[in-house]
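Thread: quick sanity check before group meeting

JM: Hey all, I'm pulling together slides for Thursday and realized we never actually wrote out the predicted structure for the chain we discussed last week. Dropping the sequence here so it's in one place. If anyone has concerns about the input, flag it before I start.
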Amino acid sequence: MTLGSALALPETDIVTQHFHLFETAIGICALAWEGERFIGAQLPEGDEGAARHRLARRFPEASEAAAEGFVAGAVAGIQALFAGEKRDLSDLPLAIETVPAFHRKVYEIALAIPHGETLTYGEVAQRLGEPGAARAVGVALGQNPWPIIVPCHRVLAAGGKTGGFSADGGVETKLRILTIEKARTSAEPSLFDALPLAARPGSR
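JM (edit): ok, ran it. Output follows.
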């Protein structure tokens, strides 16, 4: 055995976390990933400095990187969606095992909500087979690590009211995204369907 081989360390796969900031029609968004899967997404903050600050708190080990491969595809999809195009982001790779089992089930249902449509917290709970779990559904969606990819904005309170939203801008951001998607908040048409969502009665 030579000295060199004696001191050689075993080869290991070093997986590092990365993030990428990018412009959209509604502001600066961000994606964070590890390996070939996303560990987080971020909707617009007040400015780039605020976006970087929040990313640093969420992913302190992540370093900034260019968007390539599957990341570039996700960036393009999110930019197109916020520009008013109909895009399906449900096939993007997520580190879904990092969230609790109940949250995972909620997110799987949210991922299946089509562009332009909505469910209520109660309807999600019913689809889970737990009709009394509407509040727990709201908690899970409020902790969604991948907003816009897992479209928690498409889940509303009863009666078409918006419910909460944890992204910067809160309910106003949620309303803005739903308006871009031309989302219906009820299965029945109303006299107010031609109005922007934020202007409709009962939207607050």
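AS: nice. Residues 100-199 form a domain with the Arc Repressor Mutant, subunit A fold (CATH 1.10.10.10). The chain has two domains: 17-82, 100-199.
JM: adding both to the slides.
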